[in-house]
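batch_manifest entry 22 of 60
target: Collagen alpha-1(XV) chain
source organism: Eurypyga helias
requested by: lab member K.T.
priority: normal
notes from requester: please return tokens only, no post-processing; we will run our own comparison against the previous entry in this batch. if the run fails, retry once and flag.
--- input ---
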Amino acid sequence: LHLVALNLPFSGDMRADFQCFQQAQLAGLTSTYRAFLSSHLQDLATVVRKTDRDNLPVVNLKGETLFDNWESIFNGNGGQFNIHVPIYSFDGRNVMIDPSWPQKVIWHGSTAHGIRLVSNYCEAWHTADMGAVGQASPLKTGKLLDQNVYSCSNQFIVLCIENSFVS
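--- output ---
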């Protein structure tokens, strides 16, 4: 399962699933991609199809392993990953070093177990209001699910996950 970033940072007001779908298509990827975000309808931990959660590695755009499987992201350790394995955008840039993402933080809106935090997900990702807040994680921590709260006006990295494997 590929974990890929959108080509630009976004505030808390985003149509992330649509952006993931569209950018994956433009990049020539044939699988379905969903935002790596909890939403008003779904917890982050359940975005990937149940049959693919524990038997497939989570890899970057170039196939380098970030996690042994989807389930391992949500074991409560904050989604710890090797910071020496880059996360790439759909257009092939390393979000950890590319200046297009000045703040190396990813939105997620979840607990460390991938459960939605309804008070901390920018009103279901529909507001960039400075007074609203969203849960996000600085990549320098080496965690995708670190528990930090930020104003929804921030422009952060949005990740997309291939939510069903197509061989």
